[in-house]
Amino acid sequence: MNGQFHVPATGWLHALDMRVKLCMTLVVVVLCSVWGNWMFLAAMLVVMHVMLLTDHVPARHVGRLWAVLGPLCALVAVIMLLSMNAYGTGVLWQLGWWRVTSQTLMMCLVVVLRIADIVLALFLTLFTTSHADWVRGLTGLHLPLTAARRMARAVNVVPQWFAVFRERRLMRASRGAGGGFAAFGDTWAALRLRERRASVAALTRGAQMHTGSAKPTVMRPAHMRLADWLVLLIVVLVAAGVAAMVALGW
Questions:
Q1: What is the pLDDT of residues 194-240, one digit of tens each?
Q2: Are residues 55 and 138 in the same domain?
Q3: Which of 3, 49, 50, 211 is close enough to 160 for a disulfide, judged by CB 3.0 to 4.6 Å?
Q4: GO cellular-component terms in the record (predicted)?
């Protein structure tokens, strides 16, 4: 693990501007949260898998995501089936006080598809955006450079924590020490130390230095290409079409 969600590849999603991918993710999250049509949710799930496949993201990374997402969705479905036994009238199966209705199954399907769509939409950007692309994209949204760097580091705090935890656990095992809570404490201490070193390194390179009217900038600013504009146009058209279908009550 390299301490990032980013998966190195050379596909079209990796080359896409970070701001377009962020807009795409936000649109998918909003549409899936607003519209509960199971066919639309299932279609979005298939489309996002096809996008990752055509971007040449290794299947093992998508499999690792589903290794966590699958049990979570199953747990949510089981909890809903157990707690919504009185919902609906079309009883499909009954055991004592507990019954399963067609309405309950449909609601479970919609909720599980929503969770899967939203999580996959987030990882669509996380898998295909490097730390440098995060910084360039956020500064392209007129965020200060220091704030963009902090946000880019915060995005990858979870994989960084697991990478450091694995290192600390191996170091403790090589010394004959056990894991457990001590390894967790070492991990948080190591993460804080890395953040402090990153801040010190930035300060020694002139970050936050008073330079009058001059502002610090990235070496290669974000630039929208024709392909980025075309993808953004497609996203806007799809969002408008779905909004129209929702307004018409489809």
A1: 666 665 565 565 555 445 555 555 556 778 999 999 999 999 999 99
A2: no
A3: 3
A4: plasma membrane
pLDDT in tens, 59-86: 999 999 999 999 999 999 999 888 877 6
Helices (H) and strands (E) in the chain, counts: 10, 2
Cα separation of 67 and 127, whole Å? 16
Going from the C-alpha of 221 to that of each of 18, 137, 217, the distances in angstroms are: 12, 8, 8
Q: Are residues 134 and 62 in the same domain?
A: no
Q: Residues 113, 148: one domain? A: no
Extract the tokens encoding 107.
Answer: 């609601």
Number of structural domains in the chain:
2
Does 238 map to a domain? no
Which string of DSSP letters, residue by residue, matches 144-208?
-HHHHHHHHHHHTHHHHHHHHHHHHHHHHHHTT---THHHHHHHHHHHHHHHHHHHHHHHHTTTT
pLDDT range class, residue 180, cuts 50, 70, 90: low
Query: Of 86, 107, 129, which one is at a domain's C-terminal end?
Result: 129
Note whether 106 and 38 are within 8 A (CB): yes
The predicted model scores a pTM of 0.79
* Angle, helices 145-155/131-140, rounded to nearest 10 degrees: 140
Full residue range of the structural domain in which residue 166 is found: 130-228
